[in-house]
Amino acid sequence: MTPRSTTRSWLLSLALLAGGPALAQPQPSATAPFFDTHVTPAVTKLPLFEVKSPDKQLSPYTGLARRHWQDAARYLLAGAFSYVHTLDDPMQFPKQPGKSYPRNAGQVPTEKLEGLCRTLFMAAPLLKEDPGLTLNGVKVGDYYRHQLAQLVNPASLAYIQPRAKDGGPSQNLVEFGGLSVALFAAPEILWDPLPKATKDALAATMLSYGDGPTVPQNWRYFNLFILSFYQSRGYAVNEKLMAEYLQKQLTHYRGEGWYHDAPTFDYYSMWAFQMYGRLWSEYYGRAHYPEVAAQLTANFAPLKDTYPYMFGRDGSMIMWGRSITYRFAAVVPFPLMGLQPQAGTNFGWMRRIASGTLMQFLENPDFLQDNIPTLGFYGPFDPAVQAYSCRGSVFWMSKAFLGLLVPADSPFWTATENDGPWSKDIATGTVFNKFEPGPNILVTDYPNCGAAEIRVTSVQDKSDPYRGNESYNRLSYNSAFPWQADGPNGEVAMDYVFKNKDNKWEPLRLYAFRKFEAGVYYRDAELESNKDIKLHLADVTLPNGILRVDQSYSSEAAALRLGHYALPNLTGTIRRTTRKVKGHEVQLIDNGTYQLAMVPLSGWDKLETLTTTGLHPVKPESAIINAVGRVSANQPTLFAALLLWKKAGQPWTDDELMPVKKIKPSKDGSVAVAFSDGSSKTIKFN
Hints:
There is one protein chain. The protein has 2 domains: 66-423, Glycosyltransferase (Alpha/alpha barrel); 438-684, Beta-galactosidase, Chain A, domain 5 (Distorted Sandwich), CATH 2.70.98. 26% of the residues lie in helices and 22% in strands. The strands form 7 sheets. It has an 8-stranded antiparallel β-sheet with strand order 13-14-15-16-23-20-19-18, with no helix packed on it. The chain is an alpha+beta fold.
């Protein structure tokens, strides 16, 4: 890549942007020929990860102790090293068909740089405790030191040119920022043994990127780590720029442990802002910028009381946001809580979640392909892939193993696993809502099935190419039901779609938060291509699902559809059932693991249960239930529906399928909801 003279021209020309893009970039053409790097798949296939000698006394739920985390890191690193036979072999892996890069030869050096720097997130902690680590017959420490020297060797295929004087931010900045984390973590392995000439050349190249422009969100941390590491090693750096970027990073904090990544909330708050802030404070900040480090520590503190609720009872994480291929990188704040243990932290619950998330993927047979994690959530899934990702990008997930830098005697590693509030405070037969007013996030836990759910309502910047897709535009995201991509014929899961003026089905993308009041989460939404199509949205969470009470106030007519979550076909058959309950049609689907039920209450014409292909991240075939209707011009319509679920094998009673006794709109715009158990709720849109 050759950066241009300004950020604007860089944005227009750059076909590759990874780690945290918030701005537009050229997307790959669907008709462009597939650029193949012709990397031969590894000869030996890794077996499925196995937890050897599980420690059920310390970890009664997962069996994972610290040594098993080390085993997991070695396992994934061994997969990467199955492509390394000599010190000169790059960290380059077979390209996955689809929209990922490289798309031309000029992007290959950066692809290799990603593989090198990101695998260090798991290699560095392992090398600190086992400097002689050998994989595939190659001494791991020797390999990385050799490769670092090749980055600044103009005769090497791994050579990375310094940033041009007028160059803008680039992927190289991202990777050098990550490399600086590893250098801070294990300098005795990665930095100290290098010849002075190599150190000086690395400093010159890396500082050329660090002392330069960046993207105004989590990317500033890449600059900060480069500048901080080299300043700590006695090199002259731009301290004025460092101080400026530090202050700007603090402005992204919104409360309850969440940073806004300009323009969205997503896991970048955790695997970027919080992780980098924690490690920067540990390695550099407290000694050189104590006030900033203190503020970062204060911003980290609320996580123990908010973030754990975003994971299912078994630790399953929610598929949500871009770069979801980084997967269990999302748990890195939990072990990092052990660096400066805070009173009142339930470390047994934190590790139970983190280990559960690791196993969510390591136990899935589709997770690895050619010994490398796929670009997807479990197996390959191109709808969830961003064009800035290459195959080696997935090793951002290795950030979870930076938790191994936390001392073995930390309470994160020594506390006995427990279920936290799931064992007593979140009682079966209830629903638990945790509203976080800073970011206006609602997290919901469902003890009947052990799932967690999130609703996010930040107004999303239209200039961001990612906020409009399924990673962000769903009404909610659930740990039990990974999001399904939209189909061309209006097939939709957990969102509304409208037939637009181009006769295409368009999903809702633009949501504005209104309030969370009396257990009801309110948003306003409008169709991006037609501001005359508008909805007031109200979510009421129930023990077995969601009551949607949504009011159209559109000035144009349009067909619309509302989707439930989707179920993948796991066994070859998804059973479909239709029931009549208290005068209402109910359609149900059952895939042997979960059941979904949808009940139209008001405004809908009919239900449709559809088989879909190629839209689900778990299996090629899936099923969804959609409600079908129409908004009328200047005639407010109340669209109400129940979107329910249960684990398979559990029978439904009529009261469970129809917990609502009556829904009655009022002239003042409110809606009275009477429930079968005698309780009531008033939906107040105004």
